[in-house]
Amino acid sequence: MFDFNSPTTPVFSKDFLWGGATAANQLEGAWNQAGKGPSIADALPGGNERFAIASQPEFNWQIDEDKYHYPNHRGIEHYQHFKEDIKLFAEMGFRCYRFSIAWARIFPQGDEIEPNKAGLKFYDQLIDECLKYQIKPVITISHYEMPLNLAKKYGGWKNRQLILFYERFAKVVLERYYQKVHYWMTFNEINSAFHFPVMSQGLVPSNGAKDFTNIVQAWHNQFVASSLAVKIGHRLNSDLQIGCMVLYATSYAYDADPRNQLANLQQMQDFNFFCTDVQVRGEYPSSTGRMLQAHGVDPQKLKITEEDLQLLKDYPVDYIGFSYYMSTVTDVTHQDVATSAGNLIGGVSNPFLKTSDWGWQVDPTGLRIALNQLYDRYQKPLFVVENGLGAFDKLTADNQVHDNYRIDYLRRHIQAMAGAVADGVDLMGYTPWGCIDLVSASTGQMSKRYGFIYVDLDDQGQGSSNRIPKDSFYWYQKVVQSNGSKL
Length: 487
Fold this sequence. Notes:
The protein has 487 residues and is of the alpha/beta class. The chain has one domain (17-481): TIM Barrel (Alpha-Beta Barrel), CATH 3.20.20.80. It is 37% helix and 12% strand. It has 15 helices and 14 strands. The chain has helices spanning 24-27, 50-54, 78-92, 103-106, 117-132, 148-152, 161-177, 197-201, 212-236, 258-281, 288-294, 306-314, 364-378, 404-422, 471-481; strands spanning 17-21, 96-100, 136-142, 183-187, 241-247, 251-253, 320-323, 328-330, 354-355, 361-362, 382-386, 427-430, 453-455, 467-469. The strands form 4 sheets. It has an 8-stranded parallel β-barrel, surrounded by 6 helices. A two-stranded parallel ribbon has the order 6-8. A two-stranded antiparallel ribbon has the order 9-10. The active site is at 386 (nucleophile). It holds the Pfam family Glyco_hydro_1. One of its GO terms (molecular function) is beta-glucosidase activity. One of its GO terms (cellular component) is cytosol.
């Protein structure tokens, strides 16, 4: 509701959460230390072909170090360097830090009864280090790093048994940290399974990824698990903020042809809104039947109980976290137009946009549109928890990185956020992705760099691991100090 007494100047709130974002599997390393078990990320080889390899019928989650290099095994050694890294975040003035708790560090196989105490001790230290600098932790409970055993033995999230295992994991971390951590998210980019279920659901062709029924069932199981986490958290402290998290790609119709307009509407309903509809509104949207039919899913084959549906209704999320990197274009009427592989979603190339080094279409205005679309639909607080530019950064002879291209990218997206705030959007915060260089999730590369901090490691894991602030480090420092007024 519009507040007629509020100022209309487009400024960020005084408690706006400026920070940065990472994921455990992409930076921690120590993949088999202190009792940690392997995760699905640990079984994905490095390089541009990692998803192509995982999409082969014979891929069955085996780790073959003689055949492949696994960059996630080392990450950037954050497990050893977390104090140094958090100190650098504090120097930038971070008000919050979004990170994930590696499920396999707490429950190495995923199905144990008792948690791994050494894993909990690490996160005790990490959280306390953040609080030491008045940095508020924003924790993703599951971020593309489910225990490998749950994918191999149980077949991933299509198996309802994973609800119990996740509930046990969430209960342990929420009960342990709820007095120190106010902001939580249940699953990272839960809707990404629409295009690549390997990371969010643990599904590959050998255990059911080709059957969309399995993907929908996995989603439902995750929705139930998410609501259980909200239930646990709110019983501990009703003020805890527990959100969902989706990959949002603003989508445009190729032209005014009604067929493209309708196809784009359906693309938005299915990809951008389906998962948030369930988690925010607490019920399946009316477009569900059309989506299931389009993908050959028989609703009668889905295991969904009345108790499940009531749980979804009773325990929706408190806010919407989302990643935004690019927009996409929907076209069903032409066959000879160029396509874009942006963020693995695909779509038609937009001639009005430039692309990144990896072919992602850069569209800051699309972020303002996304914020308005989400807020108009749900009227829930929003949190941009991923946004950034993957680029080839060059370290100069005197150990500097001049990344003005990254500064320009982030500046324009922050300006878009300011515009959305002026539009009336309730925006909680902004945590650019990969605030320190880490292993890319989509390509398994270090050379695809996002960070404000350069990490001296190459794609083969060779290097000193030294941390070197880039030009963007000092720029973002001023952005935070000015609360977004000096860009």
